[in-house]
Amino acid sequence: AAWQRAFDPHGIAVAQILLTLDDTENRRRYLNARATFSTLLDVGALPLVNENDTIATAEIRYGDNDRLAAHAAQIVGADLLVILSDVDGVYDRDPRRDASARHLPLIEKITGDIERAAMGPNAAAGVGSGGMASKIAAAKIAGASGCATIIAGGQAENPLALIGSGARATLILPQQTRESARRRWIAGRLKPRGEIVIDAGAAAAILGGASLLPAGVIRVAGDFQRGDAVTITGAGGDALAQGLSAFNAIEIAAIAGRKSDEIEAILGYRRRPAIIEKNDLVLIRPDHE
C-alpha cells in the first residue's frame, strides 16, 4: 500500500514479487517467476521485488538486495542492471578513506584485483548488507547471463536521469551476450527429459525463429514436467532443437495438433499460447531439409 501511494501520482500500478533462491535454481519455479514478471510488465505494472524472508533460510537465500536484483535481472532477461549506492561507482580503494582512490568508469572484465579491492577496505563502500563486494558479485551474476551492470550514486534526485546524462558511474560489461548465455545454458547444461515430435510446418517455423505452437505437434514422448528441457524432433526423426517446455507431457498430448486459442477449453485453465517460447529454444541443426 505504501509503495502504491508513492507511485499513484505518476499513474503507475505496482505489484510486489517475493522471491527465494529456489525460484532461480528450480526450473519450474523459474518459469513461474518469469511468467509473473512478463504478465505484470505486459499490463503496465511495475514489479517490486523482495526476498521472501518468511520461507528463506540461511542456506537458501540471496542474502542481500544486490544479488537479489541480479537474479531478478536473469529471470526477466534484462540487458542492464542498475545498482544505486551511496558511492558513485567502483573505486580501486575506498574513496571515503583514501583521497587518492581512482574511480573506474568502465570495467570490461571483473578481475581478481577488482574483487580483492571490493573485499578489502573498499568493501564498506556501498549501502546494504553486502557493500561493494556484493555489488561486484551481483555484476558477475548478471554478467553470466549477458546483462551489463551500472553501479552509481542514488542519493541525488532523479539518479537514473543523471546516469543517462553522463553522471559519474561504473559500467561493468558482461562477458557474453544474453542470447549466447541462455543458449549455452539450455543446450549445454540441461538434460532433456522428453521429446516432442513436430510436423514440417512447425519445423520450418522454429528454424525460422518462431515459437513452437501446439498446432504443429504430432506426438510427445517421455514423462516430463513444465520447465523441463525437451528435444524437438522432426517427423523424420532428426533432432532439430532443444528447449524448455511451458507444459507437461500430459498437457501437450491433450493439445497436440490444436490451435492455441483452444488451449483453455481443452485443459480447463489458461496458459500462454506457445508450448515453447522462441527465447527458450536452441537450434541443434542450423538448417532443415
Q: SS-based structural class?
A: alpha/beta
What is the CATH third-level topology name of the largest domain?
Answer: Archaeosine Trna-guanine Transglycosylase, Chain: A, domain 4
> So how many helices?
11
The strands making up the biggest β-sheet line up spatially as: 10-9-11-12-13
- Taking the alpha carbons of the first and last residues, their distance comes to 57 Å
Relevant CATH superfamily of the largest domain: PUA domain
CATH architecture of the largest domain: Roll
**Low-confidence spans:** 124-129
Name of the level-1 CATH class of the largest domain: Mainly Beta
Rg, rounded, reads 22 Å
Helix content: 25-40%
Oligomer: single chain
**Average predicted local confidence, pLDDT:** 86
